[in-house]
Amino acid sequence: MRRSAVSVPSNIAEGDERKSDKDSVRFFHIAKGSLAELSTQLEIARDVGYFTPAQVEPLFVQSTELGKMLGALIRARAGSSPRAQSPLPTA
Fold first, then answer.
1. Dist. CA 64–CA 29, nearest whole Å
2. Which of 47, 49, 69, 81 could covalently link to 21 via disulfide, CB atoms 3.0 to 4.6 Å apart?
3. Range of the domain at 64
């Protein structure tokens, strides 16, 4: 769980430092995948009794919010590439 938890902000930071939006988006997707991995690990930990539902629920809420923010960041960066902004050629 620590590895996936550390991977999320690490990949966001690495993506933000990339030169192209395409490369940045790739790292943001990796961060989103690590977030999903962490959520799954939290579910398993709760189900086997390592954590109580009350301990895990706020983490699920935060995870959902972060996932939404990452999705918005991905859409913003994917849509801001020069290729996405250029008009389609007309015949």
1. 15
2. 81
3. 2-84
